[in-house]
Amino acid sequence: MPHSTSQEKPFNPTRMSPARLATSLFTSSFATRPTVAASAPGRVNLIGEHTDYNGGPVLPVALDRRTAVAGRAAQRWAFVSGEHNEVDEIDIDSPMRRTWTDYIVGVVRELRRLGAAPPGAELALATNLPLGAGLSSSAALTVATAKALSLLAGKRLSAAALVEVAFRAEYHGVGVRCGRMDQTIAAHAESGSALFFDTASGMLRPVPLPGRLWIMETGVAHRLTGGALNERRRECEEALAFCREWRPALQHLAQLSPSDLPEMERRLPPPLVPRVRHVVTETARTRAAADALATRDLTRLGQLLMQGHESLRDDYQSTIPEADFIVASALEHGAYGARLTGAGWGGTVVVLAPREREARIVAEIGGDFSARFGRHPAMWSTRASGGVRRETVPA
Questions:
Q1: Residue 182 among the catalytic residues
Q2: Which of 111, 22, 109, 113 is nearest to 72 (CA)?
Q3: Selected catalytic residue, list 52, 182, 315, 368
Q4: Which of 382, 353, 381, 339 is CA-nearest to residue 47?
Q5: CB–CB of 37/393 below 8 Å?
Q6: Residues 17/82, Cβ–Cβ less than 8 Å
Q7: Which of 288, 86, 287 is nearest to 201 (CA)?
Q8: pTM confidence score
């Protein structure tokens, strides 16, 4: 479920809420009503890319698009999603199958460790998040699943516990070398605010986010279970080991300051230098962006977004031509700023534009993109939403 090809669409073709869709799918698939439903949001990371697993700050925003899980305790484990529409009966103790169900299996295994899983369950899942678009559909799925299953087990886990269950399910169960940003915003988000999250200290600070953000999909999906993301994380770990030779107390790359960069460049193998430079400069940009947002200095915030995208393109090498084109077009047409959001190598671009001109700017970006790539990008806006919640099971 968290992955798709570039041709696939989100599996919510109606305006019905994901919770109602999941409930309807459950009833049609299992011939009974669910007893519990929960949902969690996707996220757009305003800035702070690839800093979370390097001990740096992030500034994500919960989307008003969500993933919902409807369920009922049972004597077996069986799952169905609106994308696949076939009931999958799973042996939780069997090896992972490298499909979307691995995310749920990972959650079940982590909840069992806490004594917070039912003996079995039937689950139906629905979303209005675009899949493979860098909007954290996987964390929305794992956090919502953890919430629903723990409720079925009669447990009320804290937001922090849900984060840890979802993180471990994806990191250890599925094998994605992710940080905790996506799970944290899915569990802790507050409506109307971005969330400044210092991953080293665990400090969370809501930052009011007025107005809307625009999301422009590149149409290029990504997979996180191997390849480039894991390679970047390996490079960062290797760089940290080198840095500790001259800074033994260094715990994270994000603890380096911009003034350390010249020394770092002298000591590190050349291929690792741009990776560390991105982490260090992105850490500084993210702190400055939170300050700019707090004072509603959107011009400054937009400049930081543009600088962040350039760093992703040049130093982390995680952008794609479609994203680079959207960012350049946004700047040309008067947006405050834009950047690729999410892990990269596909996904979406977040655009920050003046409220009075945003519709025209977005339309012009779409026209430029269509002329260049021969297809129109999916475009939509969002306001900052709240985090995971129990949903009322519709009658």
A1: yes
A2: 22
A3: 182
A4: 339
A5: yes
A6: no
A7: 287
A8: 0.90
